[in-house]
Amino acid sequence: MTTPALDAARPEAVPAAPGPVRRTLAVFARNRLALTGALVLLALLAFCFLGPLIHPTDQIHTDLSQANRAPGTGHLLGTTDLGYDQLGRLMYGGRTSLEVGFAAGLLATLFGTVYGAVAGYCGGWVDAAMMRITDAALAVPALFLLVVVAAIVTPSKPVLILIIASVAWLSPARLIRGEALALRGRDYVHAMRLMGGGGGRAVFRHVLPNAIGTVVVNATFQVADAILYVAYLAFLGLSVPPPAADWGSLLSAGITYTQVGYWWLIFPPGIAIVLVVAAFNVIGDGLRDAFDVRLKRSRA
Predict the structure, then answer these.
(1) Do 189 and 183 contact (CB within 8 A), yes or no?
(2) 219: number of CA atoms within 13 Å, CB side?
(3) Quick check: 48 and 98 in contact, CB under 8 A?
């Protein structure tokens, strides 16, 4: 039998605090603009990768008798100058743009993150030498390098990924280098050194995990930039060879017919590029707020 005094003295159950991942997701979900961007991105991914299953079209064989037809029955977005269904072309072109953009952006982020972390942690002449290489590469316009390299080799998906990643890693390298310079002086890094830990363990077990927020946020911006680079190169005629396509090459082909009013060849790929880049940018802004500890505390 319990007494009221004992019941009052008994400690109440304290609810467990949510983990860092749940807190981050909760802050992100409260950002309506970022959540809208995530939904738009999911819709575009479904459109490009699941759409051809619902709306199958022939994107290999040309049919000049169906060239430049206006939107209507059978062709909801009309046809291209080679007779391809424009809606199906938009789906397949989106696959190329998104695949190259994702792969190039993530590859650039991965290499740039490791490069910058090593430079920042080592410091001294190692940091100076590595950063001078980065500064020299940044001094040359990225688009110029992309055009020169793409003109030398035959563009394909793997080649485009490597070309874009080869110039896109510079920004994350400088960003993560600054994070590493701040993190290498923390007490837990000094304790690891005193226990006999090496530089590799410090970089991959302490510096990079504690900079993961910066890495994730930067990755979203790198993917958006990579998709734009794909469009730039395609607009200049340096894209994947036919019958493959991407949104940039569709936009470039449609510009030829601007004066005759074939709007369905211009607006759909242009709107798709704007939507996917804007979606990645607002997602990156939302993730930056979600990973900001001070902002999460103020919203708690």
Answers:
(1) yes
(2) 15
(3) yes
Query: Phi/psi at 79 (nearest 5 deg)?
Result: -130, 165
3-state secondary structure of 153: coil
Q: What angle do CA 55, 58, 155 make, to 5 degrees?
A: 110
Lowest mean pLDDT among 162-166, 203-207, 220-224: 203-207
H or E segment and range at residue 11: none
Query: Using only C-alpha atoms, what is the Rg of the chain?
Result: 25
**Two tokens at 293?**
């500890």
Q: What is the DSSP string of 268-299?
A: HHHHHHHHHHHHHHHHHHHHHHHH-HHHHHHH
Phi-psi region of 237 (alpha: psi -120 to 50; beta: other; left: phi over 0): left
209: left (phi over 0), alpha (psi -120 to 50) or beta: alpha
The model's pLDDT over 225-259, given as tens digits with 9 standing for 90+, comes to 999 888 888 877 777 887 888 888 888 888 888 77
CA distances from 270 to 34, 246, 263 (A): 21, 11, 11
Give me the DSSP letters along 155-203. Answer: --HHHHHHHHHHHHTHHHHHHHHHHHHHHTTSHHHHHHHHTT--HHHHI
- Integer angstrom CA distances of residue 118 from 76, 134, 190, 200: 52, 13, 16, 8
CB 57 within 8 A of CB 88: yes
- The torsion angle over the Cα atoms of residues 120, 124, 125 and 129, rounded to 10 degrees, is 20
For the entire predicted model, the pTM comes to: 0.82
Cβ(36)–Cβ(80) below 8 Å: no
Query: Contact at 8 Å (CB) between 161 and 100?
Result: yes
